[in-house]
């Protein structure tokens, strides 16, 4: 038997090998011209297109599974179509990688490629990526420092991170978390609080961010000034710091992260003190190990999906893309109550 056309490979049907949907397909379904489809999906300025027509085009594109050609779209908006995501060297739990994974998928729907850059001592890879990839934005969990920050500033591209102005849709997250922590501790009779910094320089901005939120919450509730201390990563000063806090009548400490909270717990054990009887301890970022620490650690967890929704909307708005639904910060942070408080 002779085929007029070559049959599809074994195991595939005609539907599975059909061509991907085109701009013309979207135009037909939305009953508009292909030019209108281009204007809407590439966010071309200077075109008078009604909200109803824009909605019809986007709905048709979504229904057909149409995605604009990446190269063409990037030319339309005048950029490389690459966003850098800087992953910190310091362990911060699963949140950074979960956010990175979700960002990769979410940005791809907008024709944007996420390039993961793992932080190094000299920031060379981030500096080189900015020079070589010409990214349209840089995002990270907390502010960049050193050469990486200088390269972003010199390139004049937006840096979007926890606490940055672009993520204002999250609200004042540090204040929300601060109030959550302070209210929980006050409900247990604590009034004089301490804050435990990590000794890692790159994490200092994140510590400053959480401490500011705690101070705002404490002032609103007429609590004494928060006592501050820095815990060495190797735990060598932990007993001395926690003993000083207890002697100063501090009854609860908020650490800048769960890992720092584990060091506080280590210091209590070394000093022969008990948690929470002598000193309640509270972390933030809800590391899985917190459930089996001694005692199990009270912490604050974050909803990576909600953070990504806000981050993607922020980046799209920053880069001039349309944002149809403004995400909210509802339930971004949740208190995980355990035995350490």
What is the number of strand segments?
10
Q: Name the CATH superfamily classification of the largest domain.
A: Response regulator
Please tell me the overall pLDDT.
82
- What is the top-level CATH class of the largest domain? Alpha Beta
The parts where pLDDT drops under 50 for at least 5 residues are 1-6, 8-17, 74-78
Q: Count the helices. How many?
A: 12
Order of helices and strands: HHHHEHEHEHEHEHEHEHEEHE
Q: Write out the strand line-up for the largest beta sheet, numbering strands in chain order.
A: 2-1-3-4
Helix content: 40-55%
**Beta-strand level of the residues, as a percent range?**
5-15%
The biggest sheet, with number of strands, parallel, antiparallel or mixed sense and barrel status, is: 4 strands, parallel
Kindly provide the radius of gyration, computed on alpha-carbon positions and rounded to a whole number of angstroms. 25 Å
Sum up the overall morphology in one term. Answer: elongated
Integer tally of domains = 3
* Termini Cα gap: 79 Å
Structural class: alpha/beta
Instruction: Indicate the CATH architecture of the largest domain.
Output: 3-Layer(aba) Sandwich
